[in-house]
Design brief:
Elements: E1 2-4, H1 6-9, E2 21-24, E3 27-30, E4 41-42, E5 46-47, E6 71-75, H2 86-94, H3 97-100, H4 102-127, H5 130-162, H6 168-193, H7 205-230
Helix pairs in contact: 4-5, 4-7, 5-6, 6-7
């Protein structure tokens, strides 16, 4: 079988009728017959002629899908080695779930707490039941904690599985996540300082209401772009 340099592999990009080759862990596969690779671009993100050893770690499928296609060569070893610190590499070998799972396992918590903060406050305005507003405060506090955790695991996943590439979804999620955390902190300490801030929605109190309501759309946008990394929308 042919041994490819990265520069040689890049020529097989599917453009102008050229074959579509990709590499994974030193093996080069011909995926020309895959309808998902017919344009040389897979799921609007992965380009043909590339080494997918790192990228495939963040995919919603296992690497064995490549075994459906013929292997046409190998990739030189120095092109596929990953620069992961030895202690982390050892830990990942012992506990493989630490590669993909930390962020998906934690990201749902800030989502539900942000939604709950908005919803319980609105229910309080409708019903006047104070326990609903207090529940909203508890959700807001928990949201701060888990948003910080989700940001940390998100940065870890981005570095480990995507090699900190400047992906469009990540560039949108990062600032929005920081905005989300900031809005939560401001609203939380505002509510602690002014316990009756939701009792009279007028004057400056309107700003507090806008802050807690804004949590809902911010989280929706963050979730949408986060999901697009794992489940990209494919257009014909």
């Amino acid at each position: 079988m042919q041994e490819f340099e990265i520069a040689e592999l890049e020529k097989f990009d599917g453009n102008e009728g050229r074959p579509v080759y990709v590499a994974y862990k030193g093996k080069v596969y011909d995926v020309t017959n895959s309808k998902l690779w017919r344009s040389g671009l897979h799921m609007k993100r992965h380009h043909a002629g590339q080494d997918l050893t790192v990228d495939i770690q963040g995919a919603p499928h296992e690497a064995d899908v490549l075994e459906r296609y013929p292997q046409v060569g190998t990739l030189k070893k120095e092109a596929v080695e990953l620069e992961i610190p030895q202690p982390l590499a050892w830990l990942l070998a012992k506990v493989p779930m630490l590669r993909r799972h930390p962020h998906p396992m934690t990201v749902h918590f800030p989502i539900v707490f942000a939604f709950s903060t908005t919803i319980f406050n609105i229910l309080y305005l409708i019903t006047g039941i104070k326990s609903l507003e207090i529940t909203a405060l508890h959700c807001l506090g928990a949201g701060i904690l888990f948003t910080a955790v989700a940001i940390t695991t998100g940065l870890y996943t981005w570095w480990l599985n995507y090699m900190a590439q400047p992906l469009r979804a990540v560039k949108i999620k990062m600032p929005l996540s920081m905005i989300l955390l900031l809005v939560q902190i401001i609203a939380f300490f505002w509510r602690l300082t002014v316990p009756d801030v939701m009792d009279s929605i007028q004057g400056v109190n309107i700003i507090y209401l806008l802050l807690v309501v804004s949590l809902f759309p911010i989280v929706v946008v963050i979730g949408w772009f986060g999901a697009s990394l794992t489940f990209p929308v494919e257009h014909d």
